[in-house]
Write a structure and sequence with these properties.
- The complex is a heterodimer.
- Chain A has 3 helices and no strands.
- By secondary structure, chain A is mainly α.
- In chain A, helix 1 packs antiparallel against helix 3.
- By secondary structure, chain B is α/β, with parallel strands linked by helices.
- Chain B contains 38 helices and 16 strands.
- Chain B has a 6-stranded mixed β-sheet with strand order 1-3-4-5-2-6, sandwiched between helices.
- In chain B, a hairpin with a 6-residue loop joins strand 15 and strand 16.
- The N and C termini of chain B lie far apart (about 95 Å).
- The chains are: A mainly alpha, B alpha/beta.
- Chains A and B meet through helix 1, helix 2 and helix 3 of A and helix 1, helix 2 and helix 11 of B.
């Protein structure tokens, strides 16, 4: 492989591939950082698994109290987890868009640099 | 094959100057870009904008070329180091090695040498001043590389040519070295390690110092490991590095564990704080623990090993894998909490409350669903050693251990397992055992290397590789109360701390290691090492200072020990093993004492066991230890691994007990009743016996030669079945001690009386020893059957008693010269 071919291979294959790998790493990391699988699986689970026992025997008052408390803890769990899922979606979108931009930029920046030189040569009134 | 010109790297070497220029222009353009941007911001002039865009575009292009050179041109494209011999070895060189070799080849060819020899190569590698890797190797080995460079420089013009085969052999060996450290290319350190095997200057340094060829390779591997870690840390976008940021919301789906959190230590945090260190040693144990904990049904791991053998390291390795999501999905998200017994016992005083809290902790761990509970020294929780606040949890923990939601890793020792846990078979049945042996020397060395930089930073000392090597050597030889790696780590830390007190040197030297260990163990280590050769060469004359006659025996012992210590014999057993046969009182035990003093520095370094106490099979536990008592043999050897083991009157021991020693003499170790290996590799074993002494007495009276006597004696012993041939054959030497003549006894009398005279000298009394006195003592104590044994008693009765009486009655004035009357045994004052 001569030096020119090597350069083209590096500029248009190796470097963009590296950008894609980095973007993929950040995307995958997002799902781990926000523990997304566990969060979705336990979306309606009680907050920190805190529950109240219904107890034995028939005690409507106690049963009702436990029921309300358990609903309440599930609602808190749902709200917290939904917020986490939203944060995850925002993060993934940002990374995805940044990745695409970086990928396109790395492919076209030699041409952008050439355009920049042509534009900049005006300084010398060329 | 080696042809540098045909490689891609060669193009990079040729273009390096051009790209250095690119780098310089890039920096100028960057400066210009910043300045023009500044002007644009202040003036908002289109002109400056155009200039800024121009400079920025040019900078981008030059930057791109610079990156291309660094990331593509200079990097070897070979991924697989397994290179066919037909291929070009030069393809595997990294840029720096290729560049240096190219310089050496150019130099050789200019002087009509087709290929550079090893010395020219070494010179050019040393000449690359700023190469941190070469500097690392030489400084850690405490080699003055400037000195070598200067000495080579003077001779550089007179170097002999090298053949193509010789030159390629150096690179091929470097490739082997690289393969052994799992490298992907041949780096500078690999070439240096290869040169260490053949280059004359390096070989001279090696032969004159404490180093060996392999040390270069070991330091090179150390350096490459450090280099790899640093490079890995720099790639922040690496998936593994990103995962180190942790996670949000993981605990939200798990149960709440307030009590457990109050009384536990989070090991996951510890692993994070330690920077997700890769574990060293016991790597095969991590998947075993992983498999146990990943089971869907109940899975509890019991890690058994001596404290300091790296048990916790295994758990750290597992936690690291889990944090980096490299383990099984079942346990990847788990928290690893250790029950903090200190916090429990300081906060809770009542036994009942402690039980309640522990039950609550276990319940929370089971309900949380993401907790793996670590219990250190588990035996203490099962009625083990009674310490403050310790409770027997066997009743509480049993049901939890059966639950698939309760996962635990318990740590215990072999002692703890046998003494306490095995007594609760219902609990033990709920665990899967993982036995941990002590780390080997290579792993321990790697462990020490990983600790060096922190210690250097903390104590502002430089720790060379030679000191680490010395630590491993002396720990193996002299410390057996702790296993590797703990004993080596302790010694490294102590030496680093105390070396400042020993000398002003900023370097922790091997001598410091010896000194610290000598202070700890009371073994004169440095002295032993330096005098060992001298002792071995002059062993006969040294022993004869204490042992009268027995020339053949002493000669045979000395020769056997020289053979054993110089490595002529390939052996795993003790340093030396001898069976002393002969009548009583002829110097067998005295020879053993003299050997202990000569070889181990003191008579105290002798483990003496009277084998007549072991005549029944039931006596084995007393020898090897049991649950209730320590073994007389195993404990003493464990405490004094560098010692002489004297097995007195071995013929009186039970034959099955003798069989135990077959393994000791053959393999150099015995397992105690706890299953722990007790090593005898640093001991000299001497067994004494007077079996068949009548044969010796008779044969000497008949004037037989020593070789004949030995033959007759062994025949007699085998006929009588005293020892079996395989037992006798295990010894390095069977030494026959002949009975003593009257002349021999006269010399012994002189020695014994000299001792009395020396004691009196301290009281400023001069005892004159006359020939008549000596003769009288010999006459009174001579008995061919009892040898010199009677003499001690006669001297006590006749001489020492007489002097003691005279001293008590104040009849001997200070500074007097006295003599003992050989007839009446009374003190005669001469003046």
């Amino acid at each position: 492989m001569n030096i020119l071919t090597k350069y083209l291979y590096w500029q248009f294959i190796i470097s963009p591939k590296k950008v894609l790998v980095i973007a993929r790493n950040y995307l995958l990391f997002g799902s781990e950082f926000f523990s997304i699988k566990e969060t979705i699986k336990s979306l309606f689970s009680p907050w920190k698994m805190i529950t109240w026992s219904y107890g034995r025997g028939v005690d409507i008052g106690k049963y009702f109290e436990a029921f309300i408390s358990n609903i309440f803890t599930r609602i808190i769990g749902f709200i917290m987890r939904t917020m986490l899922i939203i944060a995850f979606i925002v993060y993934e979108l940002i990374i995805f868009i940044s990745g695409i931009v970086a990928f396109i930029f790395i492919l076209i920046y030699p041409f952008l640099a050439l355009l920049g030189i042509i534009y900049g040569l005006r300084y010398f009134n060329v | 094959m080696f042809d540098l010109n045909k490689t891609d790297i060669y193009t990079a070497i040729k273009l390096e100057k051009l790209f250095l220029l690119v780098k310089a222009v890039k920096m100028v353009l960057l400066l210009g870009t910043i300045v023009s941007f500044g002007f644009f911001v202040f003036t908002l002039s289109n002109n400056y904008l155009e200039l800024f865009v121009l400079l920025l575009s040019l900078f981008a292009i030059f930057k791109s070329k610079d990156c291309f050179f660094e990331e593509c041109m200079k990097i070897n494209s070979y991924d697989n180091i397994l290179l066919d011999k037909q291929n070009n070895l030069a393809e595997l060189l990294n840029f720096k090695s290729a560049k240096i070799i190219n310089q050496a080849i150019d130099y050789a060819q200019k002087r009509n040498l087709k290929y550079p020899n090893s010395t020219i190569l070494l010179y050019f590698f040393l000449f690359s001043k700023k190469n941190p890797k070469i500097s690392f190797i030489f400084s850690r080995l405490l080699i003055d590389w400037e000195g070598i460079k200067d000495s080579i420089k003077g001779n550089l013009e007179n170097q002999l040519p090298s053949t193509k085969e010789e030159f390629e052999a150096i690179v091929a060996e470097a490739l082997n070295i690289s393969t052994r450290r799992e490298g992907k290319e041949i780096k500078e350190g690999d070439i240096i390690a290869s040169l260490a095997k053949i280059e004359p200057n390096l070989k001279t340094i090696i032969s004159e110092s404490y180093l060996d060829e392999q040390d270069f390779e070991k330091v090179n591997s150390w350096m490459e490991r450090v280099d790899r870690t640093i490079k890995k840390r720099k790639t922040a976008w690496d998936y593994e590095n990103l995962l180190k940021a942790g996670s949000l919301g993981r605990d939200w789906s798990a149960g709440y564990t307030p009590t457990l959190e109050s009384y536990s230590i989070d090991w996951s945090d510890q692993v994070k704080r330690r920077g997700y260190e890769e574990i060293i040693g016991h790597k095969d144990k991590v998947p075993q623990v992983e498999r146990i904990l990943s089971k869907k049904e109940a899975g509890n791991a019991l890690i058994i090993g001596d404290p300091g053998s790296g048990r916790k390291n295994i758990v750290h390795g597992l936690i690291r894998k889990c944090l980096l999501k490299q383990s099984d999905r079942q346990i990847n998200d788990c928290r690893f909490l250790e029950l903090d017994i200190i916090s429990l016992s300081t906060n809770i005083s009542s036994y009942e409350q402690m039980e309640r809290i522990l039950d609550q902790c276990f319940l929370e761990a089971a309900q949380a669903g993401n907790v793996i509970l670590i219990i250190n020294d588990f035996h203490d929780f099962l009625g083990g050693e009674k310490k403050a606040g310790i409770v027997d949890v066997s009743g509480i923990i049993g049901p939890y251990l059966n639950s698939p939601r309760f996962k635990t890793i318990c740590l215990t020792s072999f002692d703890g397992l046998h003494k306490y846990i095995e007594k609760k078979p219902s609990i033990l049945a709920l665990f899967q055992k993982i036995e941990v042996e002590e780390m080997n020397k290579d792993e321990t060395l790697e462990m020490l290397e990983s600790k060096v930089f922190d210690l250097e930073y903390q104590y502002q000392k430089f720790i060379p590789f030679t000191s680490l090597k010395e630590i491993i050597t002396v720990c193996e030889k002299y410390i057996s109360s702790y296993p590797f790696p703990q004993k080596a780590i302790n010694l490294l830390e102590e030496t680093t701390i105390y070396s400042g007190k020993l000398s002003d040197s900023p370097v922790v030297l091997p001598e410091h290691v010896d000194k610290i260990l000598s202070e700890k163990t009371q073994i004169p280590i440095g002295k032993i090492k330096s005098i060992e050769k001298e002792v071995l060469l002059n062993l006969e004359s040294i022993l004869h200072k204490r042992i009268i006659a027995q020339e053949e025996a002493i000669k045979e012992i000395s020769s056997a020990l020289r053979r054993a210590r110089t490595g002529i014999q390939t052996r795993k057993g003790p340093m030396g093993s001898f069976l002393f046969l002969g009548p009583t009182g002829v110097g067998k035990t005295e020879t053993a004492k003299a050997l202990a003093e000569t070889y181990f520095g003191s008579e105290d370094k002798m483990v003496r066991i009277d084998m007549s106490e072991f005549q029944r099979l039931d006596d084995i536990p007393r020898l090897l230890g049991s649950e209730t008592q320590e073994g007389i043999l195993t404990t003493q050897v464990k405490e004094n691994p560098f010692s002489l083991v004297l097995l007195d009157e071995i013929e009186k021991a039970h034959p099955d007990i003798l069989n135990l020693f077959l393994q000791v003499l053959d393999e150099g170790y015995v397992n105690d009743n706890m299953g722990r290996k007790v090593s005898f590799t640093n001991t000299i074993i001497i067994a004494t016996s007077n079996a068949g002494y009548q044969i010796i007495l008779k044969a000497i009276n008949e004037g037989k030669q020593m070789s004949e006597i030995k033959k007759d004696l062994l025949n007699y012993i085998f006929e009588k079945g005293t020892f079996r041939p395989e037992f006798i054959n295990r010894f390095d030497g069977t030494i026959i001690f002949k009975s003593l003549s009257k002349d021999d006894l006269s010399l012994i009398a002189q020695l014994q009386l000299d001792k009395v005279a020396n004691n009196l000298k301290q009281k400023k009394i001069n005892l004159i020893i006359t020939e008549e006195l000596k003769q009288k003592i010999v006459d009174l104590s001579y008995d061919p059957v009892f040898g010199a044994r009677e003499m001690k008693r006669v001297i006590q009765d006749k001489i020492e008693n007489a002097i003691a009486k005279a001293l008590l009655s104040d009849s001997i004035p200070n500074g007097a010269q006295i003599q003992i009357d050989p007839i009446k045994f009374e003190v005669v004052i001469l003046g």
